[in-house]
Each structure stands twice: as structure tokens, then as C-alpha cells.
Design a protein that fits this description.
137 residues; alpha+beta; Endonuclease, Chain A; 4-stranded mixed sheet; 4 helices; globular
Length: 137
């Protein structure tokens, strides 16, 4: 199956995908702030440049997109039809890198929570219980 967009349009679309200040990240940041926690953003001195770092609590939160990080949900199971081998390798390499970064952070004494994009679609049901449990412990 061929791509419905021209190479130039596809390139433009892909270039617009952000890694910081995404809608799911903003939802998580707002929820954490409402819970009275203060944090640093995207600390590049830590493995994986975590999205939120709560130094006073020794906790880190990553906000991952389901598609890019292969979450086991309907959004993460989508398989690109074009250039499938490239995308499968890219996504599996991302999962491997995530695992390595979490291990390094835990060795440094951090507690790590991964928040999935799909959780932010119904924050009261999925996101908030996870955040409360993580931040209270």
C-alpha cells in the first residue's frame, strides 16, 4: 500500500511531532501541580531526560506516547503499513532505551513512574489513581 501523502508532506507531518510540551505531558504536569508537588522539567543530566523530576521526593515521571513506546493498548498496537521494518525497529529500539534508562535511574535511587498517553484520555479513571498512589508512597 502506498502512502497517501507525498514525501514532502509526510516529512512535514513527521517534523511536527513534538517530544516536549505535548498535550498528555501538559495534563500530567497540571495534575501533579494541583496535588501540591513541584518539579523540574526535562532534566538532561539524568538518563532519558525525564519529563518531570520531583527531586524533594526522589521521584521521576515519564510521559510516553502509546504508539512510539509500544504500549499494550489500542493506540500502541497500531502497525504502520509503509516501511514496516524501519518503524518496528525504531519503536523496539525506543522500548529498549526506555528500559535501560529506567534501570539506570533506579540504580541512582530514583523511583520511576511511566504515564501512558492513553491514561490522559480519561484522567479521573486512569491517571489520577496512578499519580496519587505513586506520589503518596
Amino acid at each position: 500500500m502506498t502512502d497517501v501523502h507525498s514525501p514532502a508532506q509526510r516529512s512535514h507531518n513527521m517534523s511536527r511531532i513534538r517530544s516536549r510540551n505535548t498535550r498528555p505531558e501538559m495534563i500530567v504536569r497540571s495534575a501533579v501541580h494541583r496535588m501540591g508537588c513541584r518539579y523540574r522539567l526535562h532534566d538532561r543530566s539524568l538518563p532519558g531526560s525525564p519529563d518531570l523530576v520531583l527531586p524533594a521526593r526522589g521521584k521521576i515521571i515519564f510521559v510516553n506516547g502509546c504508539f512510539w513506546h509500544l504500549h499494550n493498548c489500542r493506540y500502541g498496537r497500531v502497525r504502520p503499513a509503509n516501511n514496516a521494518e524501519f518503524w518496528e525497529k525504531k519503536r523496539s529500539d525506543t522500548v529498549t532505551r526506555d528500559r535501560r534508562n529506567r534501570q539506570q535511574l533506579r540504580k541512582q535511587g530514583w523511583q520511576v513512574l511511566t504515564v501512558w498517553e492513553c491514561w490522559t484520555r480519561s484522567p479521573d479513571q486512569k491517571l489520577m489513581p496512578q499519580l496519587e498512589k505513586f506520589l503518596i508512597d
